[in-house]
Every structure is written in C-alpha cells, then in structure tokens.
Design a protein that fits this description.
Layout: H1 3-15, H2 17-35, H3 37-43, H4 48-54, H5 57-76, H6 80-91, H7 94-97, H8 101-133, H9 138-161, H10 166-181, H11 193-198, H12 203-234, H13 239-263, H14 269-289, H15 293-307, H16 310-321, H17 327-356, H18 358-369, H19 371-382
Length: 387
C-alpha cells in the first residue's frame, strides 16, 4: 500500500470516527454470532434446513427497519446512534438464551431489527459526511466492520475452546456494545422537508443499487453463517479452526475495503464491482471444492477480498446521486434491500445444503455473485450520471 493510499485511508477514518465505531459494534456482534453457529444450532436441535428457515426471522426485523429507521433517525437526531447501539446491546443475549427453535426465531427477529436500525443510521451518517466533504468514505467504515467482525470471531473461537458457553460470550459482547455506543452522539444534517415532499423519491436508482448491495451481502453472509459449519462438519475441523473461517472473511474484507477506499479515488465504481464479484465467484468455487480447512480459508479469503468493496460502492452511488432531502431515506431503503442478502443467504444455503450438501451450496453462491456486474452495467446505461 502506497503512502498516498495510507493517508487517504487514515483521513477517511478520521473524518468518520464516530460512525465507524457504530460499524464496529455491528461487526462485533455478528462476528461472535458466526463463530458460534455450530453450538447455537446444536443447542436448539435444528437441522440445516430448519436452521436456515429460523434465520429468516432476521428478515422480519430488517423489513421493519426499512420503514422505521428513517423515522427513528428523524425523531432522535444526534442521539440516534447511541440509542440504537444500546437497543442492540439489550437483545444481544437473545440467541444464547433461546432454548427452542421458536425462541431462537424470536431472538433473530429482535437482533435483525436492532442491528438494522443501527446499520441504517450509521450508513446515513457516513453518507452525510461524504456529501459534506465531497469524498468517498463508505469503504473505510465498512472495513472497520470487517476488522471488528474478524477480531470478534477469533476471540469467540478461543473462548469456545476455553469452555465458555454462548451466554457468557454474548454477555461480554453486550457490555462491549454499550461501552462503544454511549459516546456516539453526532450532529445531523438538516433536511428540507418541503423539498422532500415536493420531489419524487428515486425508487428506480435505489432498487438497482440496493440489488447490487444485496448480492454483495449475500456472498458475505454465506461465509458468515456457514463457513464455521463447513469447516467443522464437512472438513472435520476443530472449534477454533471453524471460527477461523469467518475470521478469514473479516480480515480479507477489511483489507479489501481499505484498499477499496483508495481504489474508489482512482478507478470507476463499475470496474470495482466487476472485478470484485469475479474474484468472489472464484473463491466460492474454491471453498466448495476444499479438501482441508486451509484450502477453505483460501476460498473464503478470495470471497472476502473480492466482494469487500462492492456493497459500500453500491451505497455510495445512492448517496451521491440522490437529492440531499432524500439522502437518508434513499440510503436506508438501499441498505435495507441489501440487508436482505444477510437474510436470504443463510436460509437458502440451509435449504440447498439440506438437499445436496454444503459443497453445492457454496458452488451456487459462485453463480449468484455474477449477478452484480449485470446490474451495474444496466445501472450505468440507465442513469447517465452513473460512473
């Protein structure tokens, strides 16, 4: 990494120092969750298909945030991030305390809702900062999510090896979330509500960009939710080796997003989407054909490195191209469409795995990744302002 690129990344982190902590909150919870999937799944006695169906509970929470998050943001203003973070901490113990598939489903609904609220607010804050400073900041912030995700997954794996149960681990996670959330009060940009009502909401642009983000998050979520199980069950790895699967994803996505922060200032967003999804597709095929945990790590790493910048780029396009009065709502809607990838991936992976095995499920992800370049090409043709 050149000195210029490093300075660009450090500058982006400095400009967005408050929302990036919110990204780390979300990464901390989901990294720990991913590393505990095998024990959580066993704890409720669910097979692959049922567990995938239960994870659809997250979608109910996320769908609610699509409409509630902008209102939540407008009502709480500067306090939106700290309050959302504390709400997230309040439900962090849910997956550990659920003793049945139904209770686990409820826990995932609550986790999806609170995670989605915070996610929308923090992305909106970054979008406002991008407009204020006229530069890309999304990749640097999403990279901090990946850093926190990787660290949390590794530490959770070691905690499992040491004999910690899910309640103990999620208890520590909840305390960490509160400590990180409390200082996140941040002034927001005023919104011209008259202009917001007068100008038509850009649904076409939002849906297209949201679909690109959805594909990126779909690929990411397959590794988050199923990599540990793939390593431990398919390849016979230990708990720590299983936890290292999502950790590899987090680390490589952090590298990819930090690199993407610099690359977005030199290359077109379309090029980043095409190259990134191609690399992710190859990585998914490597993971599918893996004969050892090490080979699987290579595949997961390629998936993370490739897909890392695609989601943030999709959100950045929305924030840049819409009118200021629609920015928060547009980013929220695009993010919510994207978040459906986190919901659909675990569920569809569960169904495919239950039918033909995890190897074929990861092979299917390779095909899904290639949808994003097609959407990006259509976006560029449809909107003359698109890069």
């Amino acid at each position: 990494m050149t000195a210029v690129a490093a300075m660009s990344i450090l500058s982006a982190l400095s400009l967005s120092r408050r929302p990036l902590v919110a990204f780390m909150i979300v990464g901390t919870f989901w990294g720990s969750f991913a590393a505990q999937v095998p024990v959580l799944k066993a704890g409720i006695g669910a097979d692959d298909a049922l567990f995938g169906l239960i994870l659809l509970g997250t979608s109910l929470g996320l769908v609610a945030t699509m409409w509630m998050a902008p209102l939540f943001d407008r009502l709480l203003g500067a306090w939106a991030m700290p309050v959302a973070g504390c709400l997230f901490a309040a439900v962090a113990l849910g997956p550990a305390l659920a003793a049945s598939p139904l209770l686990f489903f409820v826990a995932m609904v609550l986790a999806g809702y609170c995670s989605g609220i915070l996610d929308v607010v923090m992305n909106a804050r970054v979008s406002e900062l991008e407009a204020r400073h006229n530069r890309s900041l999304m990749n640097a912030n999403h990279a901090m999510f990946s850093v926190a995700y990787a660290i949390s997954a590794v530490m959770t794996g070691f905690a499992r090896e040491a004999g910690w149960n899910p309640a103990q681990i999620f208890g520590v996670v909840a305390v960490a979330i509160v400590l990180m959330a409390l200082p996140l009060k941040m002034a927001v940009e005023p919104v011209d509500h008259e202009a917001r009502r007068a100008n038509r909401f850009p649904w076409g642009l939002v849906v297209l960009c949201g679909a690109i983000v959805l594909v990126a998050f779909f690929v990411e979520a397959t590794v988050e939710a199923w990599s540990a199980l793939h390593i431990e069950r398919t390849l016979g790895g230990r708990a720590a080796e299983g936890a290292f699967g999502p950790a590899v994803l987090g680390l490589t996505m952090a590298v990819g997003r930090f690199s993407g922060q610099a690359l977005t200032e030199r290359f077109s967003e379309h090029a980043i989407i095409v190259i990134g999804t191609a690399m992710a597709s190859v990585g998914a095929l490597i993971a599918a054909a893996a004969v050892s945990p090490l080979t699987a790590y290579v595949g997961f790493g390629a998936m993370g490195l490739g897909i890392a910048a695609v989601g943030p780029v999709g959100l950045a396009i929305v924030g840049r191209m819409v009118r200021p009065e629609h920015r928060t709502a547009a980013v929220a809607r695009a993010a919510m469409i994207g978040f459906m990838g986190f919901v659909l991936a675990p569920s569809l992976m569960g169904f495919v795995s239950g039918a033909v095995g995890l190897r074929w499920a990861f092979a299917a992800v390779a095909a899904v990744a290639l949808i994003a370049p097609l959407l990006a090409a259509y976006l560029r043709r449809r909107y003359s302002q698109s890069p």
